Automatic annotation (TrEMBL):
Protein name: Biosynthetic peptidoglycan transglycosylase
Domain Glycosyl transferase family, chain residue ranges per copy: 53-219
Organism the protein comes from: Solitalea agri
Superkingdom of the source species: Bacteria
A molecular function (GO) term: peptidoglycan glycosyltransferase activity
Signal sequence, start to end: none
Bilayer topology annotation: Single-pass membrane protein
NCBIfam families for the chain: mono_pep_trsgly
Length: 228
């Protein structure tokens, strides 16, 4: 039995060492590829489609402040204040999902949680994956700055079929670099993030148009967002 405990202890130690080093390394280098990107490529291949993986890493300064403000307004208005978890939003999402069992699930994830999920983990809704998501969210909030979290988020997030990150999305939808996105263009991209495979920023449905207007209103309320 003592051998089993020693093995478990060593395995846990190596897990913490490896994952912490992984997070620290990604604090400084561009993310080469994510599990979701690889998964989408396999899905495209399985559906008989041509594999499309458009991504172009750019620095934080090469992304329009409009897009940074738009995703905060749309996805996580307390991003600059919390330590990775918006407990009130999570509670509201849990209550909603309990009432709407069997229907579409509502999420309460922060931008930090989405980065943890996209960069370090696989897709899914199991409690095990959610546990790892919380762990990696905690780590990136400790070892990364808010600026770095936003930079990674805007470079890896899925923004269309085979389109990942701000630069690829800006070129695909508006034929311009991400740094030149206008307020409305930024709000339009932010509006499709919950369902980027079925929604379009350039051909928005009535529902997406409402989201765009709401995001632009929140952007005005938020004003400039300062990053350290």
């Amino acid at each position: 039995m003592s051998k089993v405990f020693r093995f478990i202890g060593k395995a846990a130690l190596w897990f913490f060492v490896i994952t912490i080093l992984w997070v620290i390394i990604y604090r400084f280098v561009p993310i080469p590829v994510t599990f979701l990107q690889v998964q989408r490529c396999f899905e495209q291949k399985a559906d008989g489609k041509e594999i499309k993986l458009e991504k172009d890493w750019v620095s934080f300064e090469e992304i329009s402040p409009n897009l940074k403000r738009a995703v905060i307004a749309s996805e996580d208005q307390l991003f600059m204040e919390h330590m990775g978890f918006d407990w009130d939003a999570m509670r509201k999402a849990w209550v909603y999902n309990e009432k709407k069992k069997g229907k579409k699930v509502k999420g309460g994830s922060t931008i930090s949680q989405q980065v943890a999920k996209n960069v370090f983990l696989w897709s899914g809704r199991s409690y095990i994956r959610k546990g790892f998501e919380a762990y990696f969210t905690f780590l990136i909030e400790i070892f990364w700055s808010k600026k770095r979290i936003m930079e990674v988020y805007l470079n890896v997030i899925e923004m269309g079929d085979g389109i990942y990150g701000a630069e690829a999305a800006a070129l695909e939808y508006y034929k311009k670099p991400a740094v030149d996105l206008s307020k409305r263009e930024a709000a339009s991209i932010a509006a499709i993030l919950p369902n980027p495979l079925n929604w379009s920023p350039t051909k928005p449905s009535p529902m997406v148009k409402k989201k765009i207007k709401r995001i632009m209103r929140f952007m005005r309320i938020l004003g400039p967002v300062g990053f350290e």
